[in-house]
Amino acid sequence: ICITTWFVLVESCTNSTECDRNIKSKILLNNALDMLTKVKESYIECPAAKPIDCEEVLLSGCNESGPYVIWPRSRVTARKSIDVYCDMETDGGGWTVIQRRGNFSRPQDYFYQNWANYKSGFGHIEKDFWLGNDKIFALTNQNLYSVRFDLKSVDGEGRYALYDKFWIDDEINKYTLHIEDYSGNAGDSMLKVHNNAQFSTKDVKNNPGKTHCAQTYKGGWWYNECHTANLNGLYLGGKHKTYADGINWISWKGYYESLDETEIKIRSKTFKKRN
After folding, report:
1. CA trace torsion 125, 63, 88, 268 (10° rounding)
2. Residue-range definition of the domain harbouring residue 66
3. Stretch (H or E) spanning 34
């Protein structure tokens, strides 16, 4: 309803009660419009087309990293929009970020969440977050995707691990992980143990063996027996005495040093850098 209509309502009211009600309604409308404007301003403007991922956002001409809205083609998301963070800088850009860890003043165990929260996602896409297993399934089953793990230690050193193929199954199949073909300089901590593993959380054990890996190592992850990567573990900020419950990437920093920052991001396998 346009603002002019509200002036007409106020001017045409016949008693003080009706006028008060109309004025309050106008104030509520203005507050709602202000909130919508602020939300809109926090997202980067792009063409009206509905991109399915950050690569399509990049191809539409938006080359600035930040929050965007995309529309994955999937029965799980019913083609509804989802909010994502797009990395438009790393190795040509076009990456849809599905996880971020860092020093955002959260509790150490912020990622020690239950199945429902890992299913839907949690956190803030401009801070630390997990996008959500349903959304990751929707994204990785609409095309062929690669995945990149960007890792940083507490002393500021950065490394990465790139896997040429990456997708997960749906919830019925316990979000089973499929990952292949490593390259990078962080070492491979995913293929041998985590490929074909099912997702587990503190309230749902899907890993083989007697150990409840999610409870023992304080995360939600594709645990096997149990892990060589634990990027959703406790935020311990460097070396720690407890065994393997930090943000660990075994092939680089081992089981007793927790990483300071991580990002997991996906991009289509056929992506070609623009000149």
Report:
1. 100
2. 54-268
3. helix 16-42
125 and 67 in contact (C-beta within 8 Å)? yes
CATH of the domain at 157: 3.90.215.10
- In b/e form, how buried is each residue of 140-177, taking b as 16+ CB within 10 angstroms? bbbbebbbbbbbbbbeeeebbbbbeebbbbbeeebbbb
Digitized pLDDT (tens) for each residue of the chain, 275 residues in all: 333 333 333 444 556 665 566 656 556 656 655 654 444 444 565 655 899 999 999 999 999 999 999 999 988 777 789 999 999 999 999 999 999 999 999 999 999 999 999 999 999 999 999 999 999 999 999 999 999 999 999 999 999 999 999 999 999 999 999 999 999 999 999 999 999 999 999 999 999 999 999 999 999 999 999 999 999 999 999 999 999 999 999 999 999 999 999 999 999 999 987 76
SS3 262: strand
Question: Considering its fold, how many domains does the chain have in total?
Answer: 1
- The answer to whether the beta carbons of residues 98 and 266 sit under 8 Å apart is yes
The answer to whether position 14 is within a domain reads no
